[in-house]
Amino acid sequence: MLWNRLATITGLAFMASVVLAQNSSSAAAIDDYIEPYVRSANFAGQVLVEKNGRVIFEKAYGYADREHHVANNVATQFHIASMSMQFTAAAILRLVDSGSISLDDHVGDFAPGIEGADKITVRDLLTERSGLPDINALPGYDDVLQHHQTPTSLVTRIQGQPLLFPPGSKFLHEEHSAYNLLALIVEKKTGLPFAGAVKRLVFRPMGLTASGIDDDSAVHSTRVAKGYEPEGVYGLKPATSIHWSAKTGNASVYTTARDEAQWVDALFRGHQISASSSAAVLDTSLRVGYGWFKGANKRFGETAYYMNGRAPGFASFVLYLPQAQTTVVVLSNIYSSATTTIGYDVAALSLGSSYEPFRFRDPAPDLTELNNCTGIFRFGSDFYQPNAGVALTTDGSGLFMRWPSGEISALIPLAKDHFVDRAYWEEVTIQRDPSGHPDALLYGQFQGKVSSRQE
What we know:
This protein has 455 residues and is α+β, with helices and mostly antiparallel strands. The protein has 2 domains: 271 residues, DD-peptidase/beta-lactamase superfamily (Beta-lactamase); 86 residues, Lipocalin. The chain contains 12 helices and 22 strands. A hairpin with a 3-residue loop joins β7 and β8. α2 packs antiparallel against α11 and α3 runs parallel beside α7. It is globular and about 70 Å long. It starts with a helix and ends with a strand. The N terminus is likely disordered.
């Protein structure tokens, strides 16, 4: 059976640590919900739920190091990718509170070679409305990841590049370069390397003893989990090694679920930053800012503050619901966006709301059925890759989605003609014409029409 085969492939019967539960039935329900993600090799890491300032669920799953059978536990540290922006923003706000800088200062004093440096403010960087070209999208970025970097070397990469839009006018996409530049500002204002500055400004005063900045130095924590990435529909392999210094400011933090929850407490209910700085973070007039997405959430009927991240070998998610006084943290050393779905559903479970469990087909569909799903589907200009022609193909082991960029996503079968993209955790549904041939492909909220069929 597929279930047994998955257990063999992942090499685990899932490992667990301590559970702290206010209600044992709720804890059991959360645990039962998470188990299929673990056993299908789509999640390994930590899940923590805090309500009214009290941890009601905390558990670790899977392996920190699969090759050496080292289990994750609640002290294991994880790279948190874009969630790192929260700590860069906190360091800047601590400098603002001390009077070292102002949110309305222009960045010309710190990086005069940047296009628009006389117009971009520190506030624009924090709210990702700077218009700076994104280093992650520049040619040669893969090479950047393979060498040690500093904030200066990262900012130098975008010097002379034109702005994408007038500073302060809009949010276009996640601005990794803006947070590289914020890291440089922190260094210049403190006279310390970024790792040391954040430790002094944020980690130490907030009691985050398990958190740090990975700057490639030999002294960084040895308790950080090893990262893995999906291989095919059900397998895993070690993630490509990178220099985390290449993500300084935007994705170089490692931490634990406990430290992240403590940080949320300090930010939203503590006094570690001033009332004015706290108000800037909490302000929902802008959907994005200070390392958070924020705004009304229909599912929970209140304002939600959340952030997710993915970087080679890791994925993360944090959610804070102020009215419900609930924090959910999900950290994983598997490169899969399942963490976001897990986080929202665990919050729903904790609050007695509805959720959709993850169930995949067992046994898996045969090759004849999968071959009848293949084709090329054309999406519109509003798709993730505008006007993309996306191909569904098989290789004898499963169904795969081939993007125009060359990236290939494995599709996990949930039901007939219904899958989930293993990399991005979006639902994928095939619609058929009256004769039974694929006619359209639903990818999340988008629809692509068949442009050719593969017989």
